[in-house]
Design brief:
The complex is a heterodimer of chains A (about 650) and B (about 400).
Chain A (H helix, E strand, L loop, with lengths): L7 H5 L8 H27 L3 H19 L6 H26 L11 H10 L4 E3 L5 E8 L5 E7 L5 E5 L5 E2 L2 H4 L4 E3 L6 E4 L3 E3 L4 H4 L5 E3 L6 E4 L12 E4 L4 E4 L6 E10 L2 E8 L5 E4 L6 E2 L2 E2 L1 E2 L2 E3 L2 H6 L1 H6 L10 E2 L7 E2 L1 E3 L1 E4 L4 E4 L5 E5 L2 E4 L15 E2 L10 H8 L1 H4 L2 H31 L6 H8 L1 H4 L2 H11 L6 H10 L9 H29 L3 H9 L4 H29 L2 H8 L18 H10 L7 H35 L1
Parallel strand pairs in A: 10-11
Antiparallel strand pairs in A: 1-22, 2-3, 2-19, 2-21, 3-4, 4-5, 6-7, 8-13, 9-10, 11-12, 12-13, 13-14, 14-15, 15-16, 16-17, 18-19, 20-21, 23-24, 24-25, 25-26, 26-27
Helix pairs in contact in A: 2-3, 3-4, 4-22, 12-17, 12-19, 15-20, 17-19, 17-20, 19-22, 21-22
Chain B lengths: L1 H22 L5 E6 L3 H6 L2 H8 L2 E6 L2 H11 L8 E5 L3 H6 L3 E2 L12 H6 L1 E2 L2 E2 L2 E13 L10 H12 L4 E4 L5 H10 L5 E4 L3 E7 L4 H15 L9 H9 L3 E7 L3 H6 L4 E4 L12 E10 L5 H12 L2 H11 L13 H10 L3 E2 L6 H17 L4 H16 L9 H8 L1
Parallel strand pairs in B: 1-2, 1-3, 8-11, 13-14
Antiparallel strand pairs in B: 3-13, 4-13, 5-6, 7-11, 7-12, 7-13, 9-10
Helix pairs in contact in B: 8-9, 9-15, 15-16, 16-17
Classes of the chains: A alpha+beta (about 650), B alpha/beta (about 400).
């Protein structure tokens, strides 16, 4: 600090660590808060995969810290917000655009390579059922060791299988199903008999449960309390049975469920066949077998049925688990709410050769510029159906200059290019000229003191400029509607003509210029008014003394001096209208169509609307990479024209020097 | 220097705090992106779902037209939803990008309009659970046209009679191939060949088929003879209809509100037949799709099958929007919507193959140029078809030099 060329007392008033201790702490605190927020943002962006943006923000944050903590960089403190925004809003998008122009980032290639490989391997067409197998509906069970078991129901044959994890599956026996010895009535709604049990008649139920306080059944039912139950009670727990009312209540759901029981008795205890009151659910409870709900056993061996919550909590483990024969396992299909099958993958990724191999035919796919393409030599000659040429989705990679070579080779870009290009130039130049002419006229008028209520008119005339263009254009579109629009009603009534503003090439172009004039003249009027007021009055007096008339004064004084001031703004206006997407797209989407053009093109299309359609299509595909390439091309064209214009306008400055 | 050190310590402490916020994790959720009309219905399922599955349902409301673009951008980063509500014609882009997983609707297929499921079928797999369809039907002003015309020839006759009173008969939207497909299909034309079970075949382009040319020549002649105005926007068409200046048009159920607000006396019927048989208006379906980046695809499937695919929710979705339902067992308390639902039975799913993207522009131009100058229709149709063939190009087996000659002739 002592080496600093500035005197110490001035130095002290500048830096972050100058001034009183509380002030320093306050300022440090503010910086720290900004840092904390920035880091939170950066970490989030990084987690979400927006790496370039996160890195840009990190660089900006770092730079701000250096600027604020280093006293020598003091002047930058005042520039830093502007610089930060410049980097974020201008430099970053420009760099990203340039980067995209060298990639294949487009529909079909939006993922990263690992994501693309995962998705290819997960595609439904990459999965086939093993020969002779079928799909199953399933119920999942789990034991205390955390192993799973599936009860499978064949979708074709209806067979029921028990498939423990990593153990060969076997058919569901009546014992396992809890239905051994149970005889149902013909309609399946009542149980007629259970082997080894006797039916307790309805009027003897209360007596039969005399002295019984609880019943024990298999999981997940467990203990059932026996005793009087209040049917209105909402807050009971577990299960309860009231023999006097013959009412069984399940309190485990959102609302209590009520069942009527058929009671069977044996030496081991009571078996209950429960049918839901006003519902279709049935439960079979017996002391010597699993509880059966709606025909599904609630436990098999030591495995207990999983609730919806449990299934959700372990769904990724379930999807990865292999059931049944370990050599040829059955797996749960994650793409269905209730399906399991012996799936076989068709493709396998081989990291050593970076290729995807069809395990049945040996056909090989290798990545070419972000897409896995067929290696033709790997196709066996006896293959019946030809394999697909490429696998989707692809991933994004840099592809060098390919987008640029496509830009110069693509017939669809260059076919109608010159028609569009000429209209683009003409449109931009004409808009600048007519808005300037009208703006100049209005400004001269408003500037003249003989006009009454000048301020009022000046405000009114600004309105078209104050209304957003996309609203004005839509309004104009309505006004110019060839069938119903106001303008054609008036023209038809007065002159008997009805120009087709949408469908006729010249009329549509005229309509565009009309709208642009409406949108653009207030701006010109505004800046020219400013320029007029900066012209010294004595020049006019001198000219009048010299005998110049009003036109000569305008021609030799006003026009050149105004042009000197607003020249750069005219160039900016030209560059803006060169890419004035809003007006063209909203008015008629570039239409009407040019007959016989090799690519869909319209008479009012300018480069940007035309290429927008090439890059983004009307629906479906979006080609970010190609769009970036095109915007670079358009930037180059606009830059070239602007540089030319700046050279050209130097002439005006010489005029101003001579005044 | 001491100040400086203290400052740096403070800064780094707050940085740590910032990182702490970042690492906080949320409870498991199932995120759904839905438009403002479906979102509240789904929201109401949240409590029951959380109760049963221990997972919070997060319904994020996003304007319908923004859902696709935002999904494409965010899904690969893991920030996207598990389930999204969308239109079936997004499938092409979403599936090609590897962003969707199939939805197993085999258990409930009998409960749905098979056309809606066909719409959500992409290369042999179903990628969505449809809940509503959009289709067009034929509207007529009953005071001007008491009986629904059975054929397009009758439409022309009626138009000629009405022209004597200075009233337009049939009117059509400008540059709108989607609506015009009712006419095109009735004349036997098509856009892409359709093969049962396979879907649309992008290599069979029908824009220059005789039926398509006949249909547009028919419409172009109506215009040339002064019986039909050109360059009508949708709103202009509706306003001609409501003011009694036009008697017949094709439009969708979204027009009902406007038409009912006016005093025009209208009826809805199936579009007239043509030489190619009954019209097959385009039908598009809306439904639920599952992201292939969903945290728990199994849970997403379960949610759709257990909580959405039932009478109550499908009814609630219908009541909120009044679009013709895809679910059969929905009570429709509106005659007009019922008529649309009936018309949906004969609809052809709008192709969702990504190649459609290159079709709309060429097709719109073809329609515009044919209607403006029917004599050029043959040439313009061949040109449009060749543009499409050229754009689709490399995925189709080469056809003997056909494209090249069409290009050279123009």
């Amino acid at each position: 600090m002592t080496q600093s060329p500035t005197p110490p007392e001035r130095e002290n008033r500048r830096g972050l660590f100058s001034g009183s201790v509380p002030m320093t702490l306050l300022r440090l605190g503010a910086l720290a808060l900004i840092d904390a927020f920035a880091i939170w943002l950066i970490a989030n962006l990084f987690n979400d995969g927006f790496h370039p943006l996160a890195i840009t923000l990190a660089i900006i944050t770092l730079a701000i810290n250096i600027i604020f903590l280093n006293e020598r960089l003091y002047p930058f403190q005042w520039l830093s917000p502007g610089l930060a925004l410049l980097v974020l809003m201008v430099v970053f998008p420009v760099l990203i655009t340039i980067y995209y122009a060298f990639t294949n980032y487009r529909t079909g290639n939006l993922l990263t390579k690992p994501q693309a490989i995962t998705q290819i391997l997960r595609r439904p067409e990459n999965r086939v059922l093993a020969e002779g197998s079928q799909t199953y509906g399933y119920t999942a069970y789990r034991n205390e060791a955390g192993e799973f078991l599936l009860l499978l129901e064949g979708r074709e044959t209806g067979e029921l299988l028990v498939a423990p994890q990593n153990e060969t599956e076997h058919p569901l026996t009546p014992e396992l199903a809890g239905l051994a010895g149970v005889t149902f009535s013909d309609d399946g709604e009542t149980v007629e008999a259970i082997e080894g049990y006797e039916l307790v008649p309805a009027d003897e139920i209360a007596a039969a449960f005399e002295g019984v306080e609880t019943l024990e059944y298999g999981p997940p039912i467990g203990t059932v309390l026996v005793g009087p139950v209040d049917p209105e009670a909402e807050d009971g727990e577990g299960y309860a049975y009231d023999p006097a009312a013959n009412l069984f209540v399940d309190f485990t759901g959102r609302r209590p469920a009520f069942y009527t029981a058929q009671v069977f008795r044996s030496g081991e205890g009571f078996a209950l066949w429960l049918t839901e009151d006003g519902g279709n659910d049935t439960i079979l409870l017996r002391p010597d077998g699993p509880a059966v709900v709606n025909g599904i056993p609630q436990s098999i061996y030591d495995y207990v049925i999983m609730s919806a919550r449990e299934r959700t909590a372990s769904s990724s483990a379930l999807v990865e688990a292999a059931f049944g024969n370990p050599e040829d396992p059955i797996q749960i299909d994650p793409f269905s709410a209730n399906r399991a099958a012996r799936f076989q993958s068709v493709l396998r990724y081989e990291p050593e050769t970076d290729s995807l191999v069809n395990q049945f035919t040996g056909v090989i796919y290798r990545p070419v510029q972000g897409t896995f393409r067929l290696v033709p030599e790997s196709v066996p000659p006896d293959l019946e159906t030809p394999p697909p040429e490429e696998l989707r989705p692809g991933y994004y990679v840099t592809v060098g200059l390919e987008n640029f070579t496509r830009l110069f080779r693509d017939q669809s870009i260059w076919g109608p290019f010159f028609t569009v290009f000429l209209w683009t130039i003409f449109h931009a130049a004409a808009v600048v000229f007519i808005t300037f002419a009208l703006g100049m006229g209005m400004a001269l008028l408003i500037n003249d003191e003989i006009v009454p209520m000048r301020k009022f008119f000046r405000s009114i005339l600004l309105i078209p400029y104050a209304i957003p263009a996309f609203i004005s254009v839509v309004v104009w579109r309505g006004i110019l509607d060839p069938n119903l629009g106001v303008i054609n009603n008036v023209l038809g009534g007065l002159l008997g003509i009805a120009p087709n503003w949408y469908g006729d090439a010249m009329a549509a172009r005229a309509a565009i210029l009309l709208i642009q004039l409406w949108l653009g003249f207030p701006y010109m009027m505004l800046i020219i008014t400013g320029a007029l007021q900066s012209i010294p009055a004595d020049i006019y007096e001198a000219a009048t003394v010299d005998g110049a008339n009003a036109f000569q004064r305008f021609r030799s004084i006003t026009l050149p001096l105004v042009l000197v001031t607003v020249g750069p703004l005219l160039i900016a206006s030209f560059a803006f209208n060169f890419n004035n997407f809003t007006v063209i797209q909203l008015f008629n989407r570039g239409g009407p169509a040019i007959p016989g053009s090799s690519v869909p093109t319209g008479y009012t299309d300018i480069l940007i609307t035309y290429t927008y359609r090439q890059a983004f299509g009307t629906a479906g595909g979006t080609d970010y990479a190609f769009a970036s390439t095109i915007s670079i091309l358009i930037f180059l064209i606009v830059a070239a024209i602007t540089i030319f214009n700046f050279r050209f306008t130097r002439g005006w400055e010489e005029i101003s020097e001579n005044v | 220097m001491k100040h400086k050190l203290a400052g740096l310590v403070l800064v780094s402490l707050l940085m740590m705090a910032g990182l702490g916020v970042v690492s906080a994790q949320d409870a498991p959720t199932l995120t759904i992106w839905a438009d403002e009309i479906t979102a509240p219905t789904l929201q109401s399922l949240g409590e029951e779902f959380a109760d049963e599955y221990g997972v919070d349902l997060v319904v994020q409301q996003i304007p319908f037209n923004d859902i696709r673009g935002q999904f494409v951008q965010t899904a690969p980063t893991g920030e996207g939803p598990d389930i999204l509500v969308g239109a079936h014609d997004w499938l092409g882009e979403l599936v090609v990008n590897g962003l969707l997983t199939p939805v197993d609707v085999s258990d409930i297929a009998d409960e749905m309009n098979p056309n809606a499921i066909d719409a959500f079928t992409y290369s042999g797999e179903v990628y969505g659970l449809p809940y509503a369809v959009d289709n067009v039907a034929f509207f007529r002003n009953v005071d001007l046209v008491p009986e629904a015309p059975a054929t397009w020839d009758e439409v022309r006759e009626i138009s000629e009679q009405l022209a004597e009173d200075g009233i337009y008969g049939y009117v059509i939207q400008h540059r709108d191939p989607w609506h015009s497909y009712s006419v095109v299909s009735a004349f036997g034309g098509y856009v892409f060949g359709f093969e049962e079970g396979e879907g649309y075949n992008p290599c069979d382009v029908g824009l220059d088929s005789q039926g398509t040319i006949d249909a547009y020549t028919f419409l172009g002649n109506l215009a040339a003879d002064g019986l039909m105005p050109l360059n009508l926007q949708q709103e202009s068409m509706w306003s001609l209809f409501t003011e009694g200046e036009a008697a017949m048009m094709l439009t969708g159920s979204w027009a009902l509100e406007t038409l009912r607000a006016s005093d025009v006396n209208f009826e809805i019927s199936a579009p007239p037949e043509g030489p190619g048989g009954p019209a097959r208006p385009f039908l598009s379906a809306r439904g639920f799709m599952i992201s292939s980046f969903a945290n728990d695809p199994l849970l997403a499937q379960t949610f759709l099958m257990d909580f959405v695919a039932n009478d109550d929710v499908m009814q609630a979705l219908f009541d909120a929007e009044h679009r013709p339902p895809a679910w059969n067992n929905v009570e429709i308390d509106d005659e007009a919507v019922a008529a649309f639902t009936e018309a949906a039975a004969t609809g052809a799913p709008q192709p969702s193959i990504p190649e459609m993207g290159v079709v709309w522009d060429s097709w719109s131009n073809q329609m515009e140029l044919c209607l403006t100058d029917p004599a050029s229709c043959q040439a313009e149709s061949e040109l449009a078809a060749s543009q499409v063939r050229q754009a689709i190009g490399d995925i189709c087996p080469a056809v003997e030099g056909e494209d090249v000659t069409a290009e050279a002739d123009s």
